[in-house]
Each structure stands twice: as C-alpha cells, then as structure tokens.
Automatic annotation (TrEMBL):
Coiled coil (residue ranges): none
Span of domain GAF: 118-257
One Pfam family of this chain: GAF_2
Name this protein carries in UniProt: GAF domain-containing protein
InterPro entries cross-referenced by the UniProt entry: GAF (IPR003018), GAF-like_dom_sf (IPR029016)
High-level lineage: Bacteria, Pseudomonadati, Thermodesulfobacteriota, Desulfovibrionia, Desulfovibrionales
C-alpha cells in the first residue's frame, strides 16, 4: 500500500485552486487516479470515449497514482510527485519529532523516578518502559553480578517462557556480557549461536553496565518476524544504562553502610578493650 495518499494531498485547498488554474491555462481537463485506478480529481470521461494515456506519479520509486491525458498530464504527474515527496518529508519529520519527544519524556521520567525505586521495581519499570517504545511480545531481565550465578529476575509474559528463551540464546547473551555491547539478531534461525528448536524469531539485547562492569542484561524479542533497528537498540541501551546506574548506586550505598557499621562496631570493641585495660 502506498505511503502517499493522493486524496489527502489533493484535498489541500491551496493546491486544489492551483490545479484548477493550471487546468484552465493548459486548456485541458485534469484527471488524477489513485494507485488502484480510482478517480481522485476530475473524471476519466471528460477526455472522451477513448481512454487517454496514463502517466505514473512516481514517488521515490513507488507509484502513488496516475494522471490521464497528453504531455500536459505527464508534466502534472511529475509536479505531483515532487509535491508528494515534500509532503512525505514533512509528515516523516513530524512523526520522528514526536517519537523523539516521547522517548525523551520516558527517559526523563525514568531518571526522575529511578532513585526512589527498589531493585525489583527498577527492573520492572525498565521492562515496562522498553515494551512501551520497542515492539515485542516478550521481555526479560537477567542479573549476573561478578562471582555470582546468573539468574532471571523479571520476565514477561512469564518467567517460565523467558527461561526457555534465555537457554536458547544463552551464547548470544554471553557475547553481550563479555563485550559489554548490545546486539540485534533479526533472524535467530540463521545465527549459529542459537540452540535447539527456537521459540522466538527476532531479538535485541543490551547489557546492564555501570563503570565498565556488566552485571546483567535486558532482552526483548518477538516470536514472529520483526526487523529491529540500531535506533531501537540505542534506546534500549540508554534505558538499561539508566537503570544500571540506579542499581549500582544503591549497591554502593549498601556497601558503604555495611562498611560504616563494621567500623563503628570495631571502634566500640576497641574502646571497650581500652576501658578494660585502663580499669585493670
């Protein structure tokens, strides 16, 4: 289906007036058909009983419709193609701007809410936000602190299904952990690292990394064919980095509290020992 809708383009009042004026100056009726051959402007019958030649409205290699008539209709087809490209670029820019705005809003919300969340809450929020901006039918987070066995901590739609998926793509996950860089695999069946009868078709994965250390990963995937992009991986990596920073800071604070408590205990012990020595 064509991305360009001629009916929408020709419904613009200023363009309609211009085309009417152009038709009058050329002295020939204008007729524009959509890609299915249905009239969008004018009517084929105005050219007489013999159907005139069709001239394709070629928009970046895609036929959006046709004009009917002589050489003047061919010029009109090329003019409409130029206008359609400009309209497409404008709508694409508006769509991309809205997407970037929504992504920035999500990142800001994540940054604002993250420090107040517990670890499980932060990981659940990561999956919720990621699924909201990246199409997928399953998602999971695996934690793997250095020196500790990897374990699944969050999984959608359920941990059981994600455990099976993670086993199938374990070598890909291991590569992400080792390199510290995310990966996209749009056709797992063609990747030699995938094992067994695969439950999913496409996936992307990003590490949970902070200060150069990987201590987990987030996985999104689809059981049906899907073409993930580098932009989506970059967004997932940014989200995972934010959550990783929150978790790492929380872990450091806990370690500092333990160290402080240990020092206080040691100081009290030494003080008690000195008091006993003085008393004796």
């Amino acid at each position: 289906m064509s991305r360009i809708k001629l009916k929408r383009l020709l419904s613009q009042r200023r363009l309609a007036v211009l085309l009417e004026e152009l038709s009058g100056r050329l002295g020939s009726p204008l007729c524009v058909l959509d890609v299915l051959g249905r009239p969008v402007l004018g009517a084929p019958g105005v050219h007489g009983p013999t159907l005139p030649a069709r001239h394709a409205i070629d928009v970046e290699g895609e036929v959006a419709g046709y004009t009917l008539g002589d050489d003047n209709a061919d010029v009109l087809a090329r003019l409409l193609a130029v206008l359609a490209v400009l309209d497409l670029e404008k709508r694409t820019l508006a769509h991309d701007t809205l997407c970037r705005y929504n992504e920035l809003t999500l990142l800001y919300d994540m940054a604002a809410r993250g420090p107040a969340l517990q670890e499980e809450e932060a990981l659940a929020e990561l999956l919720r936000v990621a699924q909201g901006v990246i199409p997928c039918d399953h998602a999971g987070v695996q934690r793997c602190w250095p020196g500790e066995p990897a374990c699944m901590v969050q999984g959608l739609p359920d941990v059981s299904f994600l455990t099976t998926v993670f086993a199938e793509v374990a070598r890909i996950h291991e590569a992400v952990r080792r390199s510290g860089r995310g990966e996209i695999v749009n056709e797992l069946a063609a990747d030699s690292r995938a094992a067994g009868v695969l439950s999913v078709h496409s996936m992307l994965c990003a590490p949970l990394r902070c200060a150069g250390e990987v201590f987990g990963l987030v996985h999104l995937g689809s059981r049906t064919p899907r073409l993930y992009t580098t932009e989506q991986l970059a967004l997932l990596s940014t989200l995972s980095f934010q959550v990783a920073a929150v978790l790492e800071n929380r872990r450091l604070r806990q370690q500092q509290q333990k160290s402080r408590q240990a020092l206080l205990t040691l100081a009290r012990t030494l003080e008690h020992a000195l008091d006993e020595e003085v008393a004796s």
